[in-house]
Amino acid sequence: MSQHADIKAAVAAAFSAAADTYDDGAEVQREVAERLALRIARLPLPPRARILEIGCGTGFLTRALARIDARELVITDIAPAMLARCRINVRDAAPETAVEFLVMDGEDPRVEGPFDLICASLAFQWFADLPASLARLAGLLAPGGHLAFATLAADSFCEWRAAHSAAGLYAAMHNYPPRAALSNMLPEIAISEDRLHRRYADGIAFLDHLKQIGAHMPEDNRRLGPGALRSVLRGFAGGIDVTYHVAYGTWSRR
Ligand SMILES: C[S@@+](CC[C@H](N)C(=O)[O-])C[C@H]1O[C@@H](n2cnc3c(N)ncnc32)[C@H](O)[C@@H]1O
Q1: Which of 33, 84, 116, 165 could serve as 49's disulfide partner, Cβ 3.0–4.6 Å?
Q2: What domains are there in the chain, each with its CATH number?
Q3: Are strands 70-77 and 98-103 parallel, antiparallel or unpaired?
Q4: What is the mean pLDDT of the chain?
């Protein structure tokens, strides 16, 4: 397997392993999905829309999509157990709509367009090449169709990164894009942002939280050795405030 395929498989396995515990730990993700759903509700979608969701997880955004007047929902995730959980969570939510569930890598979307809406809540930060993926997804939109997403942006987990720098270490976390970079990914894309904060009892509680929701895969599968990790954790004995810097993007095809 290539390194790229290896990383994808590890991300899928980590999220699948968390399918049963995700909902209890994913407060931030629930909140972000609700905020994205409000943005989607303001989009001028046609009646009986055709909708694609990438990275559905257990279905926080999917539940909101099920309330839209849609003829078809194509709900996808790279992690089979997340998709299975979503299917259970949204069963009977949209009796008038054809709902299809697909295990799919959103960076390699094996679905036929066109869609009136393509959306993703907190899945794109796992993509290896977001600009290319956005262009590919935009190509699946019908004229007048919309792309709407929430993704992590540059200042996310800045406290954790700062603790690594202070210890002379590199945090093996993904480097999320700043707003300016997201704004350049598609012509005339609209980006807004906010910052959510959560407090964890200590560094271990933060890492346990990431594991509970399946989001603990380090960048390129790199991990700190136990000694280095201990020196980072020491700085958080009294608790850790964590920033989630969230960017919301909407783009419409002419
Ligand atoms: C943090 S969860 C968010 C789930 C859900 N959208 C929510 O708001 O709770 C990220 C989800 O993205 C999925 N994911 C990660 N990489 C993906 C990819 N390349 N293609 C599709 N889904 C992916 C994960 O399996 C996981 O279910």
Answers
A1: 116
A2: 3-154+175-196+244-252 (3.40.50.150)
A3: parallel
A4: 94
